[in-house]
Amino acid sequence: MAKWIWYPFDYEVYHSLKLHARREEYGYRRPCCWRQDDCWHDVVFRKTAVLAGERKVRFCANGEGHLVIDGQRLPYGEYVLGPGKHELEALVCKLDGLPCAYADGGEASTDESWEATCLDGRWHPAGCSDFYREPEDNPEVFPFAYEPIPPVSAEEINGGVLYDFGKETFARIAAKCGGVPAALSYGESREEALDHANSIVRDRMEAGEERLLPPRALRWLFVTGPRENFSFSAEYEYLPLEYRGAFRCSDEKLNRIWDTCAYTFHLNSREFFLDGIKRDRWVWSGDAYQSYLVNNYLFRDGGLTRRTIAALRGKEPFTRHINTILDYSLYWVLSIGEYYADTGDAGFVRSLWEKMVSLMEFCLSRTDKDGFATEHPGDWVFIDWAPLDKEYAACAEQMLLAAALETMADCAQLAGADGQGYRQKAAALREKIAEKFWDEEKGAYIDSFASGKRLVTRHTNLFALRYGFAEGKKREKILRNVLQNDAVEPITTPYFKFYELEAWCEMGELDFVRREILSYWGGMLDLGATSVWETFDPRESGAEHYAMYGDKFGKSLCHAWGASPVYLLGKYFLGVKPASGAWETFTVEPGLGGLEWMEGTVPTPRGDVKVRCRGKIAEAAAPFPSGTLVWGGKSVPIPAGETVFLEAE
Amino acid sequence: MAKWIWYPFDYEVYHSLKLHARREEYGYRRPCCWRQDDCWHDVVFRKTAVLAGERKVRFCANGEGHLVIDGQRLPYGEYVLGPGKHELEALVCKLDGLPCAYADGGEASTDESWEATCLDGRWHPAGCSDFYREPEDNPEVFPFAYEPIPPVSAEEINGGVLYDFGKETFARIAAKCGGVPAALSYGESREEALDHANSIVRDRMEAGEERLLPPRALRWLFVTGPRENFSFSAEYEYLPLEYRGAFRCSDEKLNRIWDTCAYTFHLNSREFFLDGIKRDRWVWSGDAYQSYLVNNYLFRDGGLTRRTIAALRGKEPFTRHINTILDYSLYWVLSIGEYYADTGDAGFVRSLWEKMVSLMEFCLSRTDKDGFATEHPGDWVFIDWAPLDKEYAACAEQMLLAAALETMADCAQLAGADGQGYRQKAAALREKIAEKFWDEEKGAYIDSFASGKRLVTRHTNLFALRYGFAEGKKREKILRNVLQNDAVEPITTPYFKFYELEAWCEMGELDFVRREILSYWGGMLDLGATSVWETFDPRESGAEHYAMYGDKFGKSLCHAWGASPVYLLGKYFLGVKPASGAWETFTVEPGLGGLEWMEGTVPTPRGDVKVRCRGKIAEAAAPFPSGTLVWGGKSVPIPAGETVFLEAE
């Protein structure tokens, strides 16, 4: 089966460039605030093909150029090649797009067995995707699907018409304007749609104009003028993804939360994992790092995770942190290690290895004599929107750096490189972190030792738990002195709530987590949310909920980082987790956390695992072996294709 | 005066990308064989403008984005700014082109005082050009001029019509095809135009089609079918450049040679200095290095030299030699030093300094313990199309490297960097070159010490003369044992003939050089050449002259590297040369070299110098001071604006 081929990861770079230019605000485009790379525009592909028989081969190019077949330069077209060995080369040049080649003909067909070069003297395995298998396919067009989505109501108000699509969606509108020009405002909230001057996304149609408007986030659409002046049809634009993960339980609200999280996550799962579909419509490494985990418990679409990782990294030279943020560069490294642990896909690690090395070189070039990553001009030490003490060297960053160095050491082996240097740096850094940041008196890690404030935050100590800095007594102290200590400032963003609830789950506090989810996510649903918001503060009321960053409707009401319940309910309630690399073994250790019953599915790289619990009985099934059901102090193997039961005492 | 601004050197990168994709061959595009970079597509410009009064400022963008004026985000448009300080930012995103900004309004106007960033955290002075001063100008369009150029004759032959434009030209053709499809063949030679199957550039018009064909090199155009089936008009496309240099003498043939060289050079002086207008239509650093010198004695268009230098270097990371050729990387460094010596333009050096450093780091990473640049996989050690001995380390490359290291040391000072390391490396390398490559017995430098062949070529010894490896007795020995030694293989390319004739000129052998020019260049004119060919071998006949690289009409018949007589006649016959940096002082030391009389003009950065010689009398004039006329053993200062005479004894 032939596939269109391109320079490795240039598909991601090209679509990322386009994506990051699409954000709109008050009628103008708001370009992205970090460096945007473009694909190479002049690429050569090659393969030594050995044909078992005579083959008619059709060569196509997205761009201009020529072929070299057995040393002879020829235009693109169809050629009959005799049996035996042939040296094939396809040169493609596309100045304003993504140069790609396609050959369809037995062993000469284009796929990942071809190599590509940007003419820098080096060859790499070509990039390709199952999306593009036909000669008429165009890899510059992302394969979104479209479905008609009519509004559920129309209300004549404020000299115009307010259309309600019933829930948050992402749609392109084919519009036709009558004799009066029309102003359009898109609203994630009703208030936003009705407030043209403050609506983030808006448009204008001239009298008599007919136009397909670009796809945008909305629930409400307000159009000025009489209803008969403006006619339109809307189409939902989405990436067709299979909902492999599922969750149902005795609490109807929790079911609605899971559904809303899954839908929010789907809306943000496009070329790459977005932060939000209205704002920023960009790819942020910290947000994406959590999306990879949610993805594993919902779609398990490996392509989406790999595309996002590749797009975030962009091209050489690496001269600034991913998204300009130190922690986001480090998450990027961690995400590759976690992706490998989850899938065993060493090829992907190898294909990115050089980019991992140059990124880590950049990070290490900004460390001090203790190995601490310190802030440099132009760097953003983020961690979270919270009053952390980041002076000189933030503890949370050092923990990420140590873990990232360990990932480098692990991945070096896969890439055939020597990772000892990374391993030693990581070990030394772990010692220094313990020495400088652990406060025995407070029984917790402090944010910074340089300021003298010795501030203790949940953030830093959550990372201590997550990245192996809290073994034995330290762990107990952190739980008591930080997590269970109301005097320590609470987490306020769903972004870090992800890590906090994950930590509570790890401690087995499922009942607490269930109540947290019902309160925080349930609170949004009670206010009519049909997708999860970027932030939620129950103390606010009305349109106060929609303001952010100084804009009246600046808040994203469909933000991927709020989808964590899908991950938490799948991994800790249904309890399906890998027990060794690439799910070679796995456990199902369900926890009802106060629910009467629950049932659901967790997708794994080896197949879907089904779990059902009610009262004292748990059952599990998987189409592959090596699983163990753990329940009520007992455990039992899960044979492939069979359903096993356990009953607690 | 406002100018459009862009990220520094992105104008050059963008036009270079387009240029290098235009080469055609047998009906298909032949993409360039080295890495092609693209401009950044997402750029921010800024300036702190202090307005003396209220200003109406019109902001425009080539692309999409927005402004930030004093912290407030606003769409592009016209704004009235009050007197005083304003923080101005313009964000521009253009995915398929060159993002540019324009502001027109007093002290807020865009020009080189604005800064630009590609969002990598660093700001640089913005790029701009006098070409683009009006809001309706588009920096994506190169400002070529067009003039109607009708064919001088039409001949019905071979079932079609052969149009002759009278001389080599570069033209776009607006064509209209009648009821019969037509095949077009472009010919730099009559033979090529008449041989559709082998003509390098060809096209096809469908019945009834009307089309503006892309500009191409040609003298002859052959169109199949009856004359009335095909109508067209042609326009000469060129960069309007002033012919500041001039040369006339008592030898009419030499005058025609100068004219033909100047015209050939003009045809190749476009966005950048091309090698040839039909083939390759690319920018090669070795060819360009000579073009900078010719330019100094003809157009003295500094913009063209700077654009070419910037385009050749492209973007980071530097992972392969310029044009893939080791010597071409080194010429690039040398060209910056020579440009500075000629103009005193330190700003240009500073703007490229980081790129010089990374290029030199790359070169040095490929040197051995003696400091010799050796060949690495993917590198091309070229020097010339000649049977040189390049085993392990070619002497000519080491000489270029030593000179390039000295240029680095000189330029470091201008950039405020420490150049001592380069200086030391250069000195050590010079010693090693003398030790390993000077053959006292042969009284010459050998090409390579590794092969044991101890081959002596003109090339290596010409470089010894040119780059200061032949002082005193060594120089005399090289002249006797190599240059004046018929047993040493002759130079066969006009490319290296440049350096050979320059060396003869430096020795004062003008009569010999005149006869060489008349024989070699005159030989082409005798065969009807209207532009200088890529190579010329008088032993060939007829269409043999047009073949190259295995193609029947593969030779370029309009090749810039053949324009050296313009440089040689200006610098050594008219004798106008700088005596110190940036022409602060200069000499006019004419030499008739066997001519009865000559007169001409040499453009300098300070103004045009006029020279006239007849028999024993020489006269010179310049509109600026500090010149010296040297003639017949005497010398006299040239006061500004006066003509001085000297008569030889």
TrEMBL record, chains A, B:
> What organism, scientifically named, is this protein from?
Candidatus Merdivicinus excrementipullorum
Per its UniProt record, what Gene3D superfamilies does this chain match? Answer: 1.50.10.10, Galactose-binding domain-like (2.60.120.260), Maltose phosphorylase, domain 3 (2.60.420.10)
**Annotated ranges, domain Alpha-L-rhamnosidase six-hairpin glycosidase:** 245-571
- Gene Ontology biological-process entries: carbohydrate metabolic process
| Domain of life per record | Bacteria
Descriptive protein name: Alpha-rhamnosidase
User: Where do the Alpha-rhamnosidase-like N-terminal domain residues begin and end?
Assistant: 43-209
Q: Which PANTHER family match?
A: ALPHA-L-RHAMNOSIDASE SIX-HAIRPIN GLYCOSIDASE DOMAIN-CONTAINING PROTEIN, C, PUTATIVE (AFU_ORTHOLOGUE AFUA_3G02880)-RELATED
